[in-house]
Amino acid sequence: MANNTEDDIFHDIIMGEEKSQSQGYEAGFEAGKQSGYDEGYRLGWEKGSSIASEVGFYHGFIEELQIKIQDDDSKQRAFKVTETLLKLITELTLEDPTNNLLFDKLENIRAKFKQIMSLLGMKADFNTGQEKKGVSF
């Protein structure tokens, strides 16, 4: 009987180590999973707000530009392109960020904006304000 008790104590020690290792693994796995969710949420929020800001800039800029050039006969070609751009912007859906068409449509919007700026001889670009300012050596 003494031998059986010694085996049980030894077995409990070994099993305690395995149990502790298993619990540590589970706790680490859950902490890593939560950290991944948090980082993914933050990255998604940053990218989403960046895209929304850019599209909002184009929309507001083009609407104001249309008001200024609508009666100028020499700028009717640019005016038609602004109408196309506004149509692209209003048809842009941001509900499914995993859809690759979203980024293709965003590139089309950027290209149309550049085309309008070129047609009018203007220089305007979306600036996120994230560029580093200061002296560069």
Automatic annotation (TrEMBL):
- Residues in Essential protein Yae1 N-terminal domain copies: 24-61
InterPro entries per record: Essential_protein_Yae1_N, LTO1_adapter
Q: What Pfam families does UniProt report for this protein, alphabetically?
A: Yae1_N
Family that this chain belongs to: Belongs to the LTO1 family.
Q: Which PANTHER family match?
A: GEO13458P1 (PTHR28532), ORAL CANCER OVEREXPRESSED 1 (PTHR28532:SF1)
Q: What is the name of this protein?
A: Essential protein Yae1 N-terminal domain-containing protein
